[in-house]
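Q: What structure does this chain adopt?
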Amino acid sequence: MTAPVGTLLASRYRLDARIGTGGMSTVFRAFDTVLERQVAVKLMHRDIAGDSDQLERFRREARAVARLNHPHIVGVIDAGEEGDPNRPQDGWAPFIVFEYVEGETLKDRIRRLGRLPVDEAVAYAIEIARALGVAHDRGIVHRDVKPQNVLIDEEGTAKVTDFGIARTLEEEGLTADGRVLGTTDYVSPEQAVGNPVTGQSDLYSLGVVLFEMLTGDVPFKGPNQIAVAMKHVRDDLPDVAVRRPEISAALGAVVDRATTKDLDRRYADDVTLISDLEDVLAIEAARSGHSTGEATTVLRTLPGRARRRLPLRLRTSVAVLAAITLGGAIVAGGLIALAADRTERGTSQEAVAPQPAGLDEVSLTQGGATDYDPIGGDGESPNDAPRVVDDDPNTFWDTETYEDFDSQKDGVGIYVDAAPGVEAVRMEILSNTTGWSGRILAAREGPPEEIDDPAWVELARIDGAQEAQQVDLATSGRAFSYYLVWIESFPEGASSVEIAEVVLLKRAGQDAGARSAPKRSTASATRRSQRAG
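A:
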C-alpha cells in the first residue's frame, strides 16, 4: 500500500500525482508547501518498509545521492519518515525528496523517436558520463545505468537518477559480490555473473545505452532476463556501424571500447571516455554541418584543451565549430574544413603545421597493414591491423594482453605494405601508449617469416616512444616493400601497446615505386570499412 494522492508528508510535502512506481517505491509529483515549489517524492511501499534489507537499500540511496551535487544528477532535497517506525502497521514509511524534473525519460524519448540524431545521442552520453564521473570520484557505483534512469528536462539536458542499488566501493553487504542486481538489457558481464563491480561496469552500461540511442533498440533479446544477461557475458555486441551506417568510425570505436568484455581494453575511467566522446561530438557536428539544440549546448561546454599531437598530414586540417543558436535554429557559424575535412580536438582555431619541407606521404592501400607475430604465432589483433592506415587517429591496433610481456616474448609487431617498393626516409607513429621501445625494420621481399631473418634490415631504434613519434630511417638509398614496427619492450605497468597510425614519408619528387593507390579518403563510409568489430 502507498499513501494516497493528497497526503501531506512531514507536514510539508503534498502528494499531487503518482508519476511512477517500482517494486520498492512509488514516485509522486508533490508540492513543497514551505518553499512553494514542485518536488518529486519517492515513497517506500509500506508493505516492505519493515524489511530491514530493503529499508537499508532505500536509505543508502538517500545517503549516496545526497553526497552528489552536479547539474546532470537529480539532486536530493530532503529525506524523512512518515509515521511511527515502531508501528509500521499504522502506515509508517520512509521517503526521499528530489528536485522535480519536467520532461521525459531517455527511454521514453527513444520509444517516441526511435534512433536519435547522432550528435544528440553523443551529447546525452557525454552528460551521463559526466554525472557518473562525479559519482565514481566519490567512490559510488550506480550499478543500474539505463535510459529509464535518465531524465531529459525541457531544456534537453540529461539528468541521471535512481541510485537505488548504488553502493560505495568500500561497502559490502546488500550488493556484495556474488549478487546480481540491475537491468539485464544493460548489465555488464562482470555484474551478470556476480563478479566485483566498479565504475567500469557503469561505463559498459552507458555504452549499451549509447548503442540503443544510435540504433533505436537494445543489442540483445532473449526469452527471459537470464538469457539476455548471458548474451552480455558471452556474445559480442552487434556492430553499431551496420545498424547505423552514417556514424563515423570514431564513434563506432568508442561504442566498441566502452562495451568490450575485456576490462583491460574497456575504458578505465570516465575522463578518457568523456574526452573521446567530446572529440566525436565535434567530428559529428562538423560532418553534418549542423547540430541539434542538445548537442549545441554540450559543444559550448567542451573544454579548450590542447589537442594531442598528430602526424603531420593530420595536422594540416582544422575545423572551427562555432555553432550558435539563432531564433531556435542552429547555425553553423564558422565551420571551416581544410585539406582532409577533418575535425581536431577542441573548438577553437589553431595554427596549421606545415608538411615537412621536401617530404611527401607514401600512398598506402587502406588494407595495407598486417600484424606480425613470428614468435608466438597466434596473431596480434589481426582484424584491427588495417586501422593503422585508415587515416583515423581515433581507431587503433593493439597487441594482445600480456601480464609480463618482457618475460614471455622477444617482441611483436605490425608492418605496412609499400610493395613493389619505396625509399621511405621517415616514419611517423601515433601511439595511444607511450614509453614502449623497439626497432623499425624493413624488407624488400616476403615479408620474412622469422624476425632474425637477415632479409630484415634495421633502419632505426625507438626508446621510450612518445604519443607522436617521428623516426628518421637509414634507408641509404634503398627501396623496401615492407616496413615493420617491432615492439620489444612494454612501458612499466602496461599490458598492451596501442598504435593508432603509421605513416611513411619519402623525398618530394621521388618516383612512387609503391603501387599507385588513391589518397586515403576520410569519408566516414571508407573509414568504417576498416573497423573490424
